[in-house]
Amino acid sequence: MNVSFFRSLTLFLLAGFVAYLGGGCRTKFDTAVVIPQNLKAGLDLPGAKLLFAQTRKACEGVYAVSDGSDVFGAEIAAKWSYTVKNKVDTTYHFSLFCEPQATYFVLEGRQVADSIIFLGYWRRLVNADVGTARFVVRRNGGARVLLAPDCCQALKPGDVVFKGMYGNGEENQKYPLTLSFNRPLNPKPFQIIAHRSGGRTSDLLPASENSVEIIRLAPELGATGVEFDIRQTKDGVPILYHDDQLNLRLTQKSGLIGPVENYTYKQLTSLVRLVNGEQIPTLEEALTAVIDDTPLQTVWMDSKLIRDMPLIREIHKKYIAKAAAQGRKVNIYIGLPTETTLNQFEALDDHLSAPSLCELDTSIARRINAKVWAPRFTLGNPVESAKVMQAAGLKVFVWTLDVPDFVRQFIDGGALDGILTNYSAIVAYYHYVQKP
Amino acid sequence: MYKSPSPMSFCRNWFIAWLVVGLAFSALAQQPAPTPARARKATAKPRSGYKQRVFNARAPGYTKKGQLRRLSPDQLWDAQPDSTRPNRGPFRLLVYAGLGASYYATPLNSPVALVDKQQLRWSIPLSLRVMWQTDHRMRLGIETGYVSMYSYKGTRNGELANVRVSATPILAVFSMSVVKRFALYAGTGPYRINSNLQYDGDTQGTTYSLGWMAAGTYTQPLGKNIGIAAELKWYDATQTKDACFIAQATLVWRALTW
């Protein structure tokens, strides 16, 4: 063993280390964000009652943050949503949207004696920070008003005060957080459309992108609508899947690789699971979840690779009718991102009456009688074009906006009817706190 | 905002990592190792009447028995200390053909929906490597081959499902002889990953996965241009998280010398 041997060995180990670093940038993908569980047990107190609809509605608003403003910002927007499980079990979630680092809270509330308690978790979408939070609205802190049978006439600033504590991770809540009602939410109709059915798998959400589970989660994150990515299997079944290949970004390791269109639906349901263990859903399963399980109002069916547009249109019509039959106001649009899908769509006999969303030129959107024109955000804030299109009866959605400064600028422009985003909580914050 | 590493940045990291490795190897190869023996040689005055023995690597000498003298990497190096001079060599083209056993060494989670599952991680890999042996320590080459990474089977509603996954590496390989007959290898490049599913029909899939390899060989000469090597190797197709450990016997053929 001479010096050169050890030098070579050292270099070889160095090579291995550098190679390890090269692969190490994937580590963040594998880091699980563990949402605190079993929080509901803290709400099951003797005598605890669910909140009435008018009480829930009255809780919504923009709150000023006193204790905790250095962490969660000076203002928080609070909004209720719901999820239905098994068609009968409805759970109401009280979501709080904050400006710093795309932070949101998901809470559940109960009336306990003459107070209202809220318990849940918080999460920052820009990293893996999570924690728990607990709030109490005492009788003299606004609970008397909120729980009154005739609740609630216009609340004034300071009428309702949430005295709370929060903690990091699974630790006990030990930091104070106080919210004081300031004003109602921005009432302007606006669609917050969650990309990939709710959010990206890479953002370490508790459900995989384009799954039924993330659709059910989307309202808690602030979404009022969702965008699906539609492909068709080898045997023609429309499914939700974003990428053109089966890969580890979206699915658990199964040995199946290559284009998703090469596999039959039976093969995919039997052998492939999304990253968090869900099945790849069919388009019909996804639309059923939207209509039956959530308060979502908009569905943007992005046509990634469609061979059978008439089939998509049949499903489209079926679920528009289903929503109407259930009294749900859900706008379901066939998304047209390319000339290919546009040609397929225009080949439909009833394409002029089919609600569609056109990502192409304004003239094309008008020609096909699209209900929505959706330019990409990199073209700039389309204030003037939006006015023209809105005058022609179209809505204008912009995709895909994630950067907080851009979100604020586009919302402040006031020309849009909706924004497609990976971070619904950010858009929800900037929209709801905007003063009319 | 939180930005996930994109495939582009992943490739860039790999490129930079291997650029660093390549430059480090190259830098090392351009400098004579400061062994005590070399230091003595460099400072010693030639004795009068003594003809110093000089190895000529381009025309290797013969032993007293008339056999071709095999030169170790260090001897080659001593014979040609200045690799920048115009008259360089010798250069050789070495061909390695290997056969052995592989073990799939990363977690394998066959689908939970299957029952009566059976997994197979062992296989018999083949490899073919062509290396350009330069007149300094680093060798460059390419490697390919075939390794069946893993397979599994199970039943779903009474119907048999069978999945096989194999890989064909297409790697750029660097090698360095660290002591006589012992060499280390490092390589990077894409792996062509193939899958075959037999369930509800027969479906093939293919993708390319960027990865790397590392290996160590001990070579025993068998003849003038033939040798046999014992080789331990790690194949890692990083993007698809497939990796296997290989132990194989490799036939080494010195195909060309110039």
UniProtKB/TrEMBL annotation, chain A:
Superkingdom of this protein's organism: Bacteria
Residue span, GP-PDE domain: 190-431
Record GO biological process: lipid metabolic process
Gene3D superfamilies: Phosphatidylinositol (PI) phosphodiesterase
Signal sequence interval, chain numbering: none
PROSITE patterns: GP_PDE, PROKAR_LIPOPROTEIN
InterPro entries: GP_PDE_dom (IPR030395), PLC-like_Pdiesterase_TIM-brl (IPR017946)
Pfam families cross-referenced by the UniProt entry: GDPD (PF03009)
MF (Gene Ontology): phosphoric diester hydrolase activity
Protein name: Glycerophosphodiester phosphodiesterase
Taxonomic source organism: Fibrella rubiginis
